[in-house]
Amino acid sequence: xxxxxxxxxxxxxxxxxxxxxxxxxxxxxxxxxxxxxxxxxxxxxxxxxxxxxxxxxxxxxxxxxxxxxxxxxxxxxxxxxxxxxxxxxxxxxxxxxxxxxxxxxxxxxxxxxxxxxxxxxxxxxxxxxxxxxxxxxxxxxxxxxxxxxxxxxxxxxxxxxxxxxxxxxxxxxxxxxxxxxxxxxxxxxxxxxxxxxxxxxxxxxxxxxxxxxxxxxxxxxxxxxxxxxxxxxxxxxxxxxxxxxxxxxxxxxxxxxxxxxxxxxxxxxxxxxxxxxx
Length: 278
What we know:
Elements: H1 9-36, H2 40-45, H3 57-65, H4 68-99, H5 103-115, H6 120-134, H7 140-163, H8 168-176, H9 181-192, H10 194-210, H11 213-218, H12 227-232, H13 242-263, H14 265-274
């Protein structure tokens, strides 16, 4: 039997410090939930206290005023289509770049990596002009296409490192058995990409679902509002309806938090596996 490591005092102190840091990051969630069930006056006078009486009517008002089912459907549809297409196209592109080691693919991958460091603010105005020229402004299609373009560099970069860890012999064996290149990708490579696929899906879901800037630039019609846009409607120039905005925020982040907690283990698995090259 191997010798077990002793539980040292240094390890105990480290665990205590990590627990305190974790609690520190949970403080905003406490303020969010505690104040979401308070009357407006209590939020203004003592926002740090625990609610004396839980005013669940705030959630009913937020549900009705934000037209939450409609905003949820918009956010869900845009996120689902954007993330699925982003993951699929990025996986296919990264696979082609790795397996076809040409100068063109090397330059193309370099451009994808370079695009990761370009600030969005520097391309925001030209991007809106392109969207107007294409005639997809003020539409879900235009927003989805924009997400595909902006999310592709990071997704391709993550898939690129992971594909390198897949043995080429497996694909050669499938080719000998009569599989075409497309069949090899979808029936052999794509299932092996599952850890990184889940990582890309989770990270992009968190980004697209919580994004405010792009929907505010592209979607102008009230019936197209996503959850962040519907929530922002409570913050005006002179008034801030905290007693309704905070419950709306809780309703908006709850689905994505549940989604993240269920699938978070794939992030570590995917990044760890992608760091190993075959």
